[in-house]
Model the fold of this input.
Amino acid sequence: MKELYKQGEFLMSELIGACLIGQSGGPTAVINSSAYGVIKTALGKKCITKVLAAQHGIRGILDDNIIDMGKEDAETLELMLTTPASLIRSCRYKLKDFREDDTDYKRILEIFKKYNIRYFFYNGGNDSMDTCNKISEYMATQDYECRIIGVPKTIDNDLVGTDHCPGFGSSAKYIALSVAEVIKDVHVYDRDAIVVIEVMGRHAGWLAGAAALSKICCEGPAFVYLPEVPFDMEQFFKDLEEFQKHHKRIVLVFSEGIKDKNGKFISEYGMNDLNIIDEFGHSQLGGLAATMSNIIRAKTGSKVRGIELSLLQRCASHAASKTDRDEAAMAGAFAVEAAVSGETGKMVGFRRDTKYGIYKCTPVLVDLKDVANAEKVVPREWINEEGNNVTDEFIEYVVPLIQGELETPYEHGMPKYARLKRIPAEPVNE
Done:
């Protein structure tokens, strides 16, 4: 990739010092592309003296686990574009409000001063943007200038202030491909069969909805259930019974977060919730795929398989979207351009510009305070009236995000991933 992003509208406000990037939350197939965008762009800025990374995010800052990305080989940095998961390593750590307890913040400021960090980029989802916002607000109370920009990442696609999130397109592509391959498999034999596929998404159904893209290349799933609509077990079996009159082989897709009208997760159901017990008089519990498989098997007598995509849908770089990778790298580069030009307390967002049927994505800045702890769900109008599938509008929204395949370097039949030297950073006083 040559030029990741060049922005002319920012007014230059020079601040000299090191930059620091951290990654937080769950990994994706393209999160390292965002880190690449930050690192590559920062290395080319005269005002940025060093490009550092905090291993394990905020936890790494608190532990002074800082490495120097400027000492990594150029080839290693390029390999980040096709390396899945969080190469800098991630964490799940929630900062308290500094007005109640500023212990962590004092430590963060101490580390920032130790390495003269004047630019901080945090690559993550909802909780990460909350972390960014809190640190930004704290720094505003201190006599220490540091520009802080959030770089979005989440397969869940639930960040507000942006049309979509880096990481979602690749996971959506993997899910759609996997569901299509399962459907092709199920139709091999001339016998009744039901397959239940569980997809991530506790509160937002973007990933489950992506399964419907499989109908581009095959029959598509019979039903897709999202957490935005309460799940009615009785109605489900009515719909299933009607579908079975005309189809012998059925694939069902469920978001892990579906709930009944009372707010109870369906994954918490035992078969005795429906007055169904096993041969020993016990209810059966498990993940949603296992739970629904047991319930369907008991109610219909059909052969049922349950599949939980689980971690596979997060970092499947072999099925990653080139569009997703390129946009992730663009987000990182744009973050640096914005910070160097004087912006702080913002997150990079995407604006969709579609003209004459041609998709275009433009990076924009969003206030962190408007993003932190907020959640974007699938619009009700993008779910069919019955609540058991998505509409064409949903499909049209996702299709541009899954376009293109990565040219991944291989070695001995396996992908060649980036391996960092992880050289510790040197304090400014040494």
The mean pLDDT is 92. Residues 168-186 form the longest helix (19 residues).
